[in-house]
From TrEMBL:
Keywords: Cell membrane, Membrane, Transmembrane, Transmembrane helix, Transport. It holds the Pfam family FecCD. It is a multi-pass membrane protein. Belongs to the binding-protein-dependent transport system permease family. FecCD subfamily. Coiled coil: none annotated. Signal peptide: none annotated. It is found in: Cell membrane. The keyword Aminoacyl-tRNA synthetase does not apply. Its main location: membrane. This is Iron ABC transporter permease. PANTHER family: FERRIC ENTEROBACTIN TRANSPORT SYSTEM PERMEASE PROTEIN, FERRICHROME TRANSPORT SYSTEM PERMEASE PROTEIN FHUB. The chain crosses the membrane at residues 12-30, 65-82, 94-113, 119-138, 150-171, 191-212, 237-264, 305-325.
Length: 331
């Protein structure tokens, strides 16, 4: 693909993805156990709607859609940053264990120390960040090895999963409240949860836009980046810190939703190229589209049951991961 074709495709994607986000957001507001037309939604927002529609939209669906947008954006940007830092198209906060680190911290907080639940986002961040550093350290051998990252991530995932299961065995009387969270989902999320995560998510996403130059320099390779005056390891740690922060934010509210950070950045990269000036903001929007659409499908297509969105995304993301593993050279 020549530069002119790529530029045209980028312009098209820049238009299409925001439009898709608007469409899926309205889809999330209209569809459910009680279908609501666009006219009725407009009436709700102009103070002329029916009370039952107003309660459904304002108390249930709107906060859920907004949380889905922030969750998808955080996970997709986290994956994009990790893929750049580790130069590995299979890097994802869920696959390599970063989300599991935040998940363990969240499980400890919710089950063992519920009195500190107001500290859930920073504690989930600490868990995600510690796990990311551990995996990166285990995979380091005069440079990061993609194969070692995957193997270390699988091992750490298994270990943290075992610890979480052990905690749930010891505190079996408190497990029921955390099981939906472990499956990953937005059921029952409200304005309280949105207010809980929004400040952290907005700060993290804005900070991610400041890392575009660093991420692009890392794409050049260590030697070229050093020649341009970049402090490689310092920037790597900062990017890992930010990726873990974003993953921890999403985990703290939405639970263990996987594969968003793998599928979305990879798809955007195929469409627009490696340049983080396009990759990062478009991944942000693409992640929001994927989570909101998947959550709406999960809660409306299986009525009267509501499938956790984490299960649906795993069913979609696992085959995609296996495809990449088969087609891409990762070592």
């Amino acid at each position: 693909m020549n530069q002119k074709q790529r530029s045209s495709r980028r312009k098209l994607i820049i238009i299409v993805i925001p439009v898709l986000l608007i469409i899926v957001s309205f889809y999330g507001l209209t569809y459910g156990s009680v279908p609501i037309s666009l006219r009725d939604i407009w009436a709700v927002f102009t103070n002329g709607g029916q009370p039952i529609h107003e309660k459904i939209i304002m108390n249930l669906r709107l906060p859920r859609v907004l949380i889905g947008i922030l969750t998808g954006a955080c996970l997709a940007v986290s994956g994009a940053l990790l893929q750049g830092v580790m130069r590995n198209p299979l890097a994802d906060p869920g696959i390599i264990g970063v989300s599991a680190g935040g998940g363990l911290a969240a499980v400890i907080t919710m089950i063992v120390l519920p009195q500190f639940s107001y500290l859930l986002p920073p504690l989930a961040f600490v868990g995600s960040f510690a796990t990311a550093l551990l995996i990166y350290g285990l995979a380091w051998d005069k440079g990061s090895s993609p194969l070692k990252i995957i193997l270390a991530g699988v091992a750490i995932n298994a270990l943290l999963g075992a610890v979480m299961n052990g905690i749930m065995v010891f505190y079996s009387d408190r497990v029921q409240a955390v099981l939906p969270w472990l499956a990953g989902g937005l059921s029952g999320r409200s304005w309280h949860h949105l207010g809980f995560m929004a400040p952290y998510a907005i700060i993290g996403l804005l900070l991610s836009l400041l890392t575009i130059k660093s991420a692009n320099l890392l794409l050049l390779g260590d030697d070229s980046a050093k020649l341009l005056g970049m402090k490689i390891e310092m920037h790597r740690v900062l990017l890992i810190l930010l990726a873990a922060f974003l993953s921890g934010i999403a985990v703290s509210v939405a639970g263990l939703i996987g594969f968003v950070g793998l599928v979305v950045p990879h798809a955007i990269r195929l469409l627009t190229g490696e340049d983080y000036r396009y990759l990062l903001p478009l991944s942000m929007l693409g992640g929001a589209v994927l989570v909101v659409l998947s959550d709406t499908i999960a809660r409306s297509w299986f009525d009267p049951l509501e499938l956790p969105v984490g299960i649906l995304l795993a069913c979609l993301g696992a085959p995609f991961f296996l495809y990449l593993l088969k087609k891409r050279r990762i070592v």
